[in-house]
Amino acid sequence: MKPIELVFFLSLVLQICSVTGNGPVPVIDHVEGSVVLPYSLSVPVREAYWDFPCNGHRVKVAEFRDQKFSITREEFRSRMDCSDNGTSLMIRNLRMNDSGIYTALIYDTEQRRHEISYNLTVFINAENKRLRVLLIGATVPVLLAVVIAVFLITRIQIKMKADIIYKEIQVFPKKSTNQENGTDSKGLLYQETTYVDVKR
Length: 200
Known about the structure:
The protein has 3 helices and 9 strands; from the N terminus they run H-E-E-E-E-E-E-E-E-E-H-H. The chain is α+β, with helices and mostly antiparallel strands. A hairpin with a 4-residue loop joins strand 6 (80-83) and strand 7 (88-91). The protein is rod-shaped. Residues 42-122 form the Immunoglobulin V-set domain. Residues 1-21 form the signal peptide.
């Protein structure tokens, strides 16, 4: 099973467990991804508060009051937004340390209190990372194979040209002086050496 398939399988199992139990709703996504922690009400919302564990304590990260949404934690600025009057929270450009349990406390106009928790798990996108590693790792062997192929093709071409020249020499030998005089019927491959008597 691929890592990405395993993640989605575990997400499905956690979702089933959360439906059958009272635990936080699991939400899983990768680094630099985006998630929405949704919750909707049929009545108007008066105010909503979102908290998150930090250094062993639960701290408020965002709130919706007087029809205004505000982010109270610096690390979430420019990465967090809300919808549905603050009952749904969106987190963009996820980081590993965003993992944890987010709890929403929502008060409607009828003075009723609603609470829901989400267990966010952020993981490294292993598929893309592995693909990049494979591409980088495959580049060197491919280039090496191309260089070897070009070298071998060049060597083969040089050898073929040499073989053709050698065959031409064998097929079309020069006539020897013996052949020209008609004394040798077989013929020699190379021209016969002629010695000249030089007077001293």
